[in-house]
Amino acid sequence: MIELDPQTIRLAQQGDEDACRTIIRELHRPILATIYRFLGPRFRPDYEDIAQDIFLKLFRSIERFDHDRGVKFTTWAFTFVRNHCFDILKKRRITSTSLSVGDEDDRQWGFEDTDTRKPSETAENTELGRKIEEAVSCLGDEQRMAFVLREYEGLEYQVIADVMNVSEGTVKSRLHRAKEALRQRLAPYLRTGA
User: Fold this and answer.
1) DSSP string, 37-50
2) Can you tell me the distance from the alpha carbon of 86 to that of 72, in angstroms, rounded to the nearest whole number?
3) In whole angstroms, what is the distance from residue 91 CA to residue 28 CA?
4) How far is it, in rounded angstroms, from Cα 148 to Cα 37?
């Protein structure tokens, strides 16, 4: 995950439009990707609106960010993503959604695997990808968020702990339980001895 220059943050806190645009440019794709992977295709028409709402909340509160406290700006920003996504789930009263793979809209967002594969490999990977995403969507909200931030966004354990406002041990525990649940759910699809 990219970390923004502290000077850019300070300028944005002072209302500098170029600095604000830099923040949006750097964080837009990671935030959209997290929204996509956490909320799933049911919310596809709302991805940009959700991201915009998150950025509005972030910029309304940016003067409260204190770099000297040792918190990374991206950690602080992803806390807004987490909280907003959880609020959306509460409002819509759903606990999980299924994510799709290979949809034309996915290519628009840049989430498609760009490797060139044989048609048979693509079919296998597409089917396995669907099964994996269905299994991920069945995880509890807290486990799913930890899993998405770690496995898809590549955030460190401590950063995830800060985003989720829990201990690093809690993050590791949630990830362990998530991976065990996924392993059990996906056992029929995984090759043994590979």
Assistant:
1) HHH-GGGGGGHHHH
2) 22
3) 24
4) 7
User: In angstroms, how far is CA 53 from the centroid of its own chain?
Assistant: 16
pLDDT at residue 106 in the model: 46
Q: Can you say how many angstroms the Cα of residue 137 is from the centroid of all Cα atoms in its chain?
A: 13
Of 166, 106, 155, the C-alpha closest to 133 is 106
Eight-state DSSP code of residue 36: H
- Contact predicate 136/128, CB 8 Å: no
Q: Mind listing the domains of the chain with CATH numbers?
A: 6-189 (1.10.10.10)
CA distance 139 to 98: 11
Tokens read off for 66? 């204190």
CA distance 173 to 186: 20
Least confident of 46-60, 81-95, 151-165: 81-95
